[in-house]
From TrEMBL, chains A, B:
The keyword Amino-acid biosynthesis applies. It comes from Methanoculleus frigidifontis. This is CBS domain-containing protein. Residues 17-75, 80-136 form the CBS domain. It comes from the Archaea. Keywords: Amino-acid biosynthesis, CBS domain, Methionine biosynthesis.
Length: 136, 136
């Protein structure tokens, strides 16, 4: 594991991200989103348009919101967050970590230059940087 | 074996945890849990028994699960996770980070010796450790 106290080059998002991100399209049902979230054991689904471009994100938080306002919304498009905060594979992980913390969110979709999803970086993945770092 | 090497002491959970954790009791409704999750802008609610002891955790993930199996469950007790993975204020943060990562969970209730909740540590909070760590 790399030490965080080295002044060496920061690890990149590419080194920690999960490349098996499950996604959904904006015209699918909320219940389909809930099923995919459970099946993927994840809190976050990037939402794609018909051309495969990232247009939103839907989380278990948004599904819970639909429970509170029940019946009123039906499609992923109605509950997704459209202003997605994202990262790219070459971004240093400390910059990505700041985005998570400042926005109180727990994952960032990782996109390429064409705005296609190539992975997801979750706050949990940051834990990988702590292995054997400090003395006991 | 003990090393003579002088390295810094790991930060403790106390230094990063959020002390304003909202909680819920096990006999409340799932919808009440959903409302509290939204209001607290959080994914995690520690569940307490009538004596204020930690007996479970309920997350937006569990509420989403209730959406998939709709109507069958009604109370927090029916959907909460009973085997709670937790931490305490004096635990080194790297140990807490490992618990998050190995169990693929994004927060840990912080309890005192009487199993009372004194805070919550989320994976997002780990981002606070990355400030200005690497050279640009
Ligand atoms: C403000 S957070 C609060 C919950 C919690 N802090 C968490 O772990 O995500 C929940 C909201 O953030 C949104 N969200 C999550 N990840 C996002 C991202 N990368 N960009 C924009 N919004 C995001 C979700 O759609 C949801 O409406």
């Amino acid at each position: 594991a790399q030490s965080m106290r080295e002044t060496a080059r920061a690890p990149r998002v590419r080194e920690l991200m999960n490349t098996k991100a499950v996604s959904i399209t904006e015209d699918e049902k909320i219940k389909t989103a809930a099923r995919k979230l459970l099946k993927g054991e994840t809190n976050h689904l990037p939402v794609l348009d018909r051309n495969g471009m990232l247009v939103g994100i839907v989380t278990t938080f948004d599904v819970s919101k639909a429970v509170v306002h029940d019946g009123k919304n039906n499609l992923v498009r109605d509950i997704m967050t459209k202003n997605v905060i994202k990262t790219h594979p070459e971004e240093p992980v400390d910059i990505a970590a700041q985005k998570l913390e400042r926005n109180n969110i727990s994952a960032l979709p990782v996109v390429d230059k064409e705005n296609r999803v190539v992975g997801i970086l979750s706050a949990i993945d940051l834990g990988k940087l702590f292995g054997g770092r400090w003395q006991r």
